[in-house]
Write a structure and sequence with these properties.
single chain, alpha+beta, Peptide Deformylase, 5-stranded antiparallel β-sheet, two-stranded antiparallel sheet, 3 helices, 7 strands, binds zinc ion
């Protein structure tokens, strides 16, 4: 297993659309393992999408670690088939935008379809933080970042925060 490099804004690869996974092979299993290792190594991340580590495939890994309990979820080719009209505002952050947080309004519940590593189809209605997290991660697969929902001023601030964050990071490591 290996920890992968997480791309940060303004890397153009974060703005690209990812393609469906077609081969459910050993390489896919390894990719998912590496993504989980990368997510856990980040310390504070609860989800990671493949484009964030430079892989243009529709793969998402999530572990909300609610109440300290690990609950890893692997979603291959996930699709949202229903969005609730009821919204939920939550402060979001992103491993690709380190050091920046802002409120985003999203559907309080969604119904999601996805395939597992075993190619088995799953369908589930998700609410609250899980719903928010899934919407955030699936956005990554379409090249959308949570700052795309914010004003240009806030977007600029996010970019500055990341620049500063990376400078500090260089000093400490
Ligand atoms: Zn993100």
């Amino acid at each position: 297993m290996s920890i992968l490099e997480i791309l940060t804004i303004p890397d153009k690869r974060l703005k690209q659309k990812s393609s469906d996974v077609e081969n459910f092979d050993k390489d896919l299993a390894k990719m998912v393992k590496d993504m989980f290792e990368t997510l856990y190594a980040s310390g504070n991340g609860i989800g990671l999408a493949a484009p964030q580590v430079g892989i243009k495939k529709r793969i998402v890994v999530i572990d909300l670690k609610e109440e300290g309990k690990s609950n890893p979820m692997t979603l291959i080719n996930p699709k949202i088939i229903f969005y609730s009209e009821e919204k939920f505002v939550n402060e979001e952050g992103c491993l690709s935008i380190p050091g920046f947080y802002a409120d985003v309004s999203r559907s309080n519940s969604v119904e999601v379809e996805w395939e597992g590593l075993d190619r088995k189809k799953n369908k589930k209605k998700l609410t609250g933080l899980m719903s928010i997290c899934i919407q955030h991660e699936i956005d990554h697969l379409d090249g959308i970042l949570f700052i795309d929902y914010l004003s240009n001023l806030k977007k600029k601030r996010a970019l500055e925060k990341v620049k500063k964050f990376k400078k500090n990071d260089e000093k400490t490591t």
